[in-house]
Amino acid sequence: MGKPQFGYWNLRGLGQSIKFALAYMGVDYEDVVYQDKEGDDTWTKQKPNLGLLCPNLPYWIDDKEKLSESRAILKYVIRKYKPALISSDISKLVVVEEVEGIIDDIGRFFAMSVYSDTEAANTLFDSMVPPKLEAISKVLGDKKFFLGDELSYLDFVVYEIFYRLKTYRTKFIEGHKNLLSYVDNFEAIPAIDAYIKSPAYIKTPCYGRTAAKPI
């Protein structure tokens, strides 16, 4: 077949960390964009015919490999194109995987707050996110990235959540200067900077059209 295909909605969502990784690694792929708008059933019609184990977006189709879980896709493309981004040092790997779990929790609280916008969801976000950010801040310390001067797969995941916090929930991250510096360091990477400035980059929305809050 030709280029690998990456399929996702016309938003950041679960696909953005993967797109950052692909841009950083210089992977040439076909960006298949589905419109997240009422009445467009293109994805509904196509998904039974793609050969995916569990048809969902995002998906990655690369010759015989067909994946549809966002974190599985991220780790697959990294293992294929730049495996050094997943450390073979178990002491380092356990640190990034622990942070991965914490950042995923923050992502879930964020999504709950955006999609439901209920007092309960917002209160949960307000109470649960600050201590988790404090823990992540301690792990990062004065390092440039979570494993030092070099990126790991985790950085693509963390940056996306920090971007949303910095843009839409500023008060939660502004007290952590090292986390703000981390965002700047990530955006200053030449390949990332070029991607952000390219027509392919999506600034917003971060969530789908069913969100109670348009973010």
TrEMBL record:
EC number: 2.5.1.18
Biological process terms in GO annotation: glutathione metabolic process
Organism encoding this protein: Folsomia candida (Springtail)
GST N-terminal domain segment(s): 2-85
Reaction catalyzed: RX + glutathione = an S-substituted glutathione + a halide anion + H(+)
Family matches, as Pfam families: GST_C_3, GST_N
GO function terms (MF aspect): glutathione transferase activity
Record-stated family: Belongs to the GST superfamily. Mu family.
Coiled-coil positions: none
Residue stretches spanning the membrane: none
Domain GST C-terminal stretches: 89-206
Protein name in the entry: glutathione transferase
Role of this protein: Conjugation of reduced glutathione to a wide number of exogenous and endogenous hydrophobic electrophiles.
Keywords: Transferase
Taxonomic superkingdom: Eukaryota
